[in-house]
Amino acid sequence: MDGPHAVGYARSARGRVGAIARYTALVVAALLFLLPFYLLVRNGLGSDAEITAPDWTFFPTTLHWGNIGELFADPSVPMAHSLLNSGLVSVVQTIGQVALSSMAGYGLARIPFRYSNGVLAAIVATLMIPAAVTFVPTFVVVSSLGWVSTLRGLIVPGLFSGFTAFLFRQYFLSFPKELEEAARVDGLGHWGAYWRIVVPNSTGFIAAIGVITFLGSWNAFLWPLVIGQDSSSWTVQVALSSFMTAQTINLHELFVAAAVSILPLLLVFVFLQRYLVQGVAESGIKG
Amino acid sequence: MRKPNGLSRRGVLAGAAGLVATGALAACGSNTGRGSSGGGSGPTVSQWYHQYGEAGVEQAVKRYAKAYSKANVQVQWTAGDYDTKLATALVGSGGPDVFEQSVAKVDQVRAHQLADLTDVFGSAKDDFTPAVLDAQTVDGRIYGIPQAIDMQMLFYRKSWLAKAGVSAPTTLAELTSAAKKLTNKKVKGLFLGNDGGAGVLGAVPLWSVGQSYLSDDQRKVGFTAAAAAPVFAALRTMYSSGSLLLGAPADWSDPSAFTQGLTAMQWSGLWAVPVVQKALGQDFGVIAWPKGDGSGALSVPIGAYASTVNAKSKHVDAAKAFAKWLWVDKTDYQRDFDLSYGFHIPARTSIAAKADKLSSGAGKDAVDLVQQYGKVQATPGWTSPMNTAYTDALNNIIRKGSNPESELKTAIGKIDKQLSTLYK
Amino acid sequence: MTSRDVADRDTVHGSARDRRRARRHGRQRTWPAFWVFVGPFLAGLILFTFVPIVWSAVLSFFDAHNTVTPTRFVGLANYVDMLTNSDFLASLGTFSVFAVFIVPTTVAISLGLALLVHRLRFARAFFRSVFFLPAACSYVVAALIWKLSIFNGVRFGLANTVLGLFGIDQVPWLSSASPPWYWVALVTLRLWLQVGFYMVLFLAGLQRIPGELYEAAYVDGAKPGWQVFRYITLPQLRATTVAVVLLNLIAAYQAFDEFYNLMSSARGYPPFARPPLVYLYFTALGQGQDFGHGSAGAVILALLIGIVTVLQGKLFGFGRRD
């Protein structure tokens, strides 16, 4: 449904003026929103002399694509390694979180069990307290497990999201029961119904949750900062943060590193935006 | 001793291990995230350095580590807030075996975080500069092997000062007026770091008015709010007058702001001399921090990062052996480390005597400054919580404009409290 | 977060129905299947959420400097210290100031953008994508751009370059605490990053408003523009708006990334502009290494947010995520 202009006042002269004003405002806003991306490219592909010049250079006279090579060749910046860590962490966390949460959500929504309510209440209780607030206690546990500065320590605590499990439960409650019952008649157990019927028919929802989990995981900072004390376990966010607060900084290299670090997510944006938008609307909290 | 019910560390660990083994998580169980290949046999020893700004240092220390044959040494180069990262790591189980820090703190020794290194020095002990060795000594035991002496000083652009008709400042009043005269639309007069000096100056403002962090016996606060307040008020005035450079991308330890011409004077250190020389040739000079008033002195803070062994390390002996090898035995590496990259003053007098690079030009001026005015910035008794209380007060005075005397009184109160818990 | 009540309500109905059905199917043993599905998740949740909370509650009663297995019981002393600690209270104050800036501006701008984008005939998807695009950036990347390029204090910073065009002197955006210019950087950063996200929520809300409502309004003589917005659009968006405000508040409460990256340097963090998590980070994991006070602080913060969440439910009778 598209709101007021359904009535057709937009064709009047007043409407035309309004439309021009609206597009002007939008274009100005869009330029403001794109400004930081412009800076990322300008500084990332410029030279330090251009970046720090007394007068503003609008764009580098020659694009220094070599900056990218320089970044990956610089032995004091573990860029390739931290990108790899980030990739591993976000992929495993996305798959793991979606798998664990969807199973839990399905169990809670569909499998009758005497203490199901209690389990659900326990999960719902965790929604009251955002995970970030408990990072100190979680660090205490994870460090006692000896998982500081390990990939395990980075990944595993992020696999269990009460919120995602809850979303899946809500979703499965509205999943048409007839489909599953047909499957049960065909002799499939709970697992068969879940795996053969429910999952294949929920790909849109799963993709939406998956995309937004990936986004949150790739961009996460506090937990990787706390746990990644050794530079071999830095994610790309921790690496960027360390180098921007460092004693010595190399401006063009930092900006090109930042630009490289958002490339994977820009790809997600270009190709999976539909799911991302759906994910935001579904969850309304993560990301 | 009280233990929380059913929550002993071991109990939780056992439970956790069970869960992990049975859960779907075992998949990523074996990847520790540590790439462990490299030269050397024997145990793997991890070694942390803070980030040195000068090009080549990182490669050099990795080269030294690789040359060691009795252990597989993994060097970690730590950018960012090194002190905080180190403190966090020392509590957890993933901490470094060998690391550098500039002072062995009393509370670290009390918490048994540092291994006793007294016996690794042997006859070489007398060769180390006593002042920096003292910074590693608590109750007669030595907890760190000094690597290289760093000093801080004020760099100034000779031609710009001449053009503005100001001479190199020797008093705080002169510094303030010079900074003001040197400021114009594109250039600021003075750079003391992005926080206006609150972080880097440390004890220097106190020295400039004849005060210090702690009393000589380390048991009492060494300054009074009334005596110290005027110098901080002067720093605040400078900060708010617009003649300080603030918010530069690179902080005080990096001479970029000075070489890029953003500022006419900058507080930095000896290590920056080669870079400044390359950029500005002979057009710069170095001086000590000026006097605050008649009772004070010209001040040059010195300090030395020292190689320290984590007492909780699984390989304390291997770590000690490595630290001894690199920082006591291998004098050729020490010379390379001190003089081949940025400039540092060798911590050992026998090496310092042969340091040609420090016998002419700005390098010589700096060494002269150290000999005349050099004083060790931090001492073992000055713990992190004390330093935090003090630095917080400086930040509040300089950056927020809070009342100097009452801020300093608050800091003194907190430091007193720390002292009373340390020496009951 | 906004849909807690539904859970409770649905649970009652849902599982009562399930139980009845289970009985009809004749005492099937369903608990093994239940645990296969829910067990792995629940085990992890217990280990990484419940155990930490309990452990932390225990630690908060101990003197736990430099250790997580302390032995000296101190009772409520840590709580008393934290609640009388001016720095901790100041961190709550910092959060409040931040929230006062960020919440109204976010709601206004994201709603404004949603209204503008919603009625577009051309380039609707383009504008939506542009405003949503910053959500792909991490706070770290945004902080890097803000700190080193837009709001650095020197002449080649973008903000200072623009001010320079008007003959205004360089402003030390992030260094200055009086006046606290750093808020400009902190607030604009978060706005840039999150308004597109909330705009998407508002767009979803706008799409759910039935067209007949507008038609009826015009028939009744309502003028397009403010009247329709005031009496139709805004009331219909009430649930979305409440959700956006709450999500925003909770997110601001957890603010860490941009504060840490904009304000800290190689020498640590200044004693101001510390939101609760930053303060906690440096208390428990910084050079203080004080897990007793850190845990007490964490418990206090968790309780505060728990209380707000419960109140939120009571006040807005939640459930509908619109």
TrEMBL record, chain A:
Pfam families: BPD_transp_1 (PF00528). It is found in: Cell membrane. It is a multi-pass membrane protein. Residues 83-273 form the ABC transmembrane type-1 domain. Coiled coil: none annotated. InterPro entries: MetI-like, MetI-like_sf. Gene3D superfamilies: MetI-like. CDD domains: TM_PBP2 (cd06261). The lineage of its organism: Bacteria, Bacillati, Actinomycetota, Actinomycetes, Micromonosporales. GO terms for biological process: transmembrane transport. This is Sugar ABC transporter permease. SUPFAM superfamilies: MetI-like. Keywords: Cell membrane, Membrane, Transmembrane, Transmembrane helix, Transport. The keyword Transmembrane helix applies. GO terms for cellular component: plasma membrane. Belongs to the binding-protein-dependent transport system permease family. Its main location: membrane. It comes from Actinocatenispora comari. The chain crosses the membrane at residues 20-41, 88-108, 120-148, 154-172, 254-272.
TrEMBL record, chain B:
Residues 1-26 form the signal peptide. The keyword Signal applies. SUPFAM superfamilies: Periplasmic binding protein-like II. Keywords: Signal. Pfam families: SBP_bac_1 (PF01547). It comes from the Bacteria. CDD domains: PBP2_TMBP_like. This is Sugar ABC transporter substrate-binding protein. It comes from Actinocatenispora comari.
From TrEMBL, chain C:
The chain crosses the membrane at residues 33-55, 88-117, 129-148, 181-204, 237-256, 291-311. Keywords: Cell membrane, Membrane, Transmembrane, Transmembrane helix, Transport. PROSITE patterns: ABC_TM1. InterPro entries: ABC_transporter_permease, MetI-like, MetI-like_sf. It is found in: Cell membrane. Gene3D superfamilies: MetI-like (1.10.3720.10). It comes from the Bacteria. Residues 1-24 are annotated as: Disordered. Residues 92-312 form the ABC transmembrane type-1 domain. GO terms for biological process: transmembrane transport. It is a multi-pass membrane protein. One of its GO terms (cellular component) is plasma membrane. Residues 1-17 have a biased composition (Basic and acidic residues). Pfam families: BPD_transp_1. Belongs to the binding-protein-dependent transport system permease family. PANTHER family: ABC TRANSPORTER PERMEASE PROTEIN, DIACETYLCHITOBIOSE UPTAKE SYSTEM PERMEASE PROTEIN NGCF. This is Sugar ABC transporter permease. It comes from Actinocatenispora comari.
